[in-house]
Amino acid sequence: MLLEFLAVIVAGFGGGGVAHLLRRLSGRRLPEWLTPAGVAAAMLVMVIYLEYSWAERFEAGLPDEIVVVSKNQHQSWFRPWTYAVPLTNRIIAIDNRVRQTNRNHPDLVLTGVILRERWALTMAFKSIFDCAEGRRADLTEGARLTADGIPPNAEWYRLDPNDPFLRVACEGGAHGGDREED
């Protein structure tokens, strides 16, 4: 966040500098308000760029074993440009680095889930996917599994068979490995 703030400030200085240089080169025939307008325009463009590029920058920094399965697109009245090009404000990814298949129930797969939202803390937790039944149960902090590897009293969520969340978890993703649960 600090680096983005500094980038916006530097862009403002750059935009103001270019506008001031244009005024000087024109022999001061261009209006005086051009310099602060250049500052404002450069800062606005930088903020828009940073807002639109954060998801791609976040995704580019992920290891191959983490697969993005969902991006939430957002539109807002105070950002009118988002009606033309919606803004990504949330990402859900499957972390196949912790992927485990249940030895006793091969249709049950344990994976990590990463929830990343712009300007919010990243959340990570584990989920169990029942690939045969097309459902998911999230494991809470300190949740224990039975000796069979099934979470007792789990709240299961039914998923569409074509849901990318279910598909990536059950198939192991593009680069995901698979190891058996001990």
Question: Could you characterize what this model shows?
Answer:
The chain is an alpha+beta fold and 182 residues long. The chain contains 3 helices and 7 strands, in the order H-H-E-E-E-E-E-E-H-E. Strands 1, 2, 3, 4, 5, 6 and 7 form a 7-stranded mixed beta sheet that branches. The radius of gyration is 24 Å and the shape is elongated.
In a few lines, what is going on in this structure?
The protein has helices at 2-25, 34-60, 164-171, and strands at 66-74, 87-101, 108-117, 123-130, 135-139, 156-158, 179-180. It is built from three helices and seven strands.
Low-confidence stretches: 175-182
- Pattern of helices and strands: HHEEEEEEHE
The separation of the N and C termini measures 41 Å
CATH architecture of the largest domain: Beta Barrel
Largest sheet: 7 strands, mixed
Overall morphology: elongated
Query: Helical percent range?
Result: 25-40%
The overall pLDDT average reads: 90
Structural class: alpha+beta
CATH-defined topology of the largest domain: Lipocalin
In percent terms, what proportion of residues is strand? Answer: 25-35%
User: What is the count of structural domains?
Assistant: 2
By DSSP (H or I, 4+ residues per run), the number of helices equals 3
In total, how many beta strands?
7
Q: State the name of the first-level CATH class of the largest domain.
A: Mainly Beta
Radius of gyration: 24 Å
Which key phrases capture this entry?
182 residues; alpha+beta; Lipocalin; 2 domains; 32% helix; disordered C terminus
